[in-house]
Specification:
By secondary structure, this protein is of the alpha+beta class. It is built from 3 helices and 5 strands. Strand 1 and strand 2 form a beta hairpin. Helix 1 crosses helix 2. The radius of gyration is 17 Å and the shape is globular. The C terminus is likely disordered.
Length: 165
């Protein structure tokens, strides 16, 4: 028996397919279920053959509700991630799409309070920022998570670790 697709993943898939076919965003569901009326940042990750194929998101909510956040970020992850060409319709059946809904970032005083499986990490320094989502396959330790996050943000000064969010 196939497992059910999470409603947010289903929405992201529909948004990508609709955008490819119609060159415009999927209209927001109407009526909007209460669970999609909240505002939260989201990240849409797209993988093909277990390799990243697109990932874009928002740390803080940018759109009117969770549905719009998923729709817009799904479109951007599939067509605007500068690391990859736009996704094509025939690829859709080969993709694994995940949706991460972010809680508001919290400042931390010590990286020892982190858990790589439960918490993502945002590191900011002098106008630069690196972000890493939680529970990533190849990230096993907080030290590894921090190093990757600093690299992603182009942050070289490890004295800024105390500013991690």
């Amino acid at each position: 028996m196939a497992s059910e697709v999470h409603p947010l993943v289903s929405l992201a898939i529909r948004a990508i397919k609709y955008h490819i076919e119609n060159k415009k965003p999927l209209p927001c569901p109407n009526p909007l279920p209460d669970s999609l009326k909240i505002r939260a940042g989201t990240f849409i990750s797209i993988k093909k053959n277990r390799l990243l194929r697109g990932c874009i998101g928002t740390i803080q909510p940018k759109y009117a509700n969770l549905a719009e956040e998923v729709i817009q970020n799904a479109i951007k992850a599939s067509s605007e991630d500068p690391r990859f060409p736009s996704i094509e319709l025939q690829e859709l059946t080969e993709l694994v799409i995940s949706v991460d809904v972010l809680s508001a970032p919290e400042k931390i005083d010590d990286v020892k309070s982190l858990d790589v499986n439960r918490y993502g990490l945002i590191v900011r320094s002098e106008g630069k920022q690196g972000l890493l989502l939680p529970n990533l396959e190849n990230i096993k330790t907080v030290d590894q998570q921090l190093k990757v996050c600093l690299t992603k943000g182009g942050i070289k000064d490890t004295d800024q670790i105390g500013r991690a969010h």
